[in-house]
Amino acid sequence: MPLITLFAHATTDQAMDIIASAARHQGYVIDDETNTRMTLRLGSVFMSILLGIFVKYIVIAVRVKPHDDDEVRLTLEWENPWWRGIFASSMNASTARALADLFEEMLEEEGGEVLERKGG
After folding, report:
1. Per-domain residue ranges of the chain
2. What angle do CA 89, 91, 94 make, to 5 degrees?
3. CATH number of 3-119
4. Which of 23, 24, 75, 88 is 20 to 30 A off residue 106, Cα-Cα?
């Protein structure tokens, strides 16, 4: 499964709040949420099956874990549904990157900082 990992100066609660805000801002629905995990969904599975690559559909599993002192590791992980064809991989990767970019921007606005970014 493709993923993006961000290491950031933030608390777990702060990172979860910011990723939830960023997701809502981009039109995601939060399907499941705990203190350190959430599942984000963008688009409709039915419309995605019906119209294929012409409709965005992605489900992202978000995990936030303490990493070092005052640091967290945020992971965005998603699958590329087979019915979306070969273009789903790049389309979903760019959609997840856009969410990670917005998270980074919103975190910096609140005084946090992304120290390292991997994947995507």
Report:
1. 3-119
2. 105
3. 3.30.310.80
4. 88
